[in-house]
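[job 4471] stage=fold_predict status=RUNNING
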Amino acid sequence: MNAITYRQKALAAALDPSHPLHLLPTVPPHARRILEVGCHAGQILEALRLPAECELFGCDIDAEALELGSRMLPAAKFTMGRAEALPYEDLFFDFVFARSVITVTDIPVALRELHRVLAPKGKLWLSLHRWADCRVILGEAWPEHPVKTLAKGAYVLANSALFHSTGKLVRYPLNRARMMSFQTETRMRYELEKAGLTNIVVSRGKYLVIEAEKVSGSRQGDENLRSE
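[job 4471] inference complete, writing structure tokens
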């Protein structure tokens, strides 16, 4: 699916509350600088219909999607980058969100970066993959690629168990550029607190959603987290 088609489908789902894939973050009223990590072509930022005074930022690793986003949503600032090394200065954003993106990152490193770029009292919103979602997500590729799906599934389940028990993650042995895991509330709470985030709220509806807040505003505190 090319970037234009994907954007159209994703935007339609984001604008339709009855759509099975509909999921939008709740943006705090005070937020003025807003970042989406894993923004693709900015369809979720567009669907949020935020006030004109808000500064919108999107970060992704897909150059084609970012170029499309810049055309379709010229008011936003799109930048290439990874969650583990965000290309933004410290204490910059009032609100940061990521939809099903942290699940394919080195989560402890990504959380430290999210904490770093959040301003004091800044809010974080994440949607995650639960273990119960594994059959659905991996099952999509099964009819066409059963062997590859089986190998990937074994890796994801092992990586998820490793993360839950130790907080460590490893890359996919058959493609070192890839990483994926499913998350548990217990481990995510621990990792969020370790990264310096607090006031953690978990929603267990159709999707697993976690919200948190940054209370520390000191640059030294952020430096200490990065040095761990």
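[job 4471] summary: The mean pLDDT is 90.
[job 4471] exit 0
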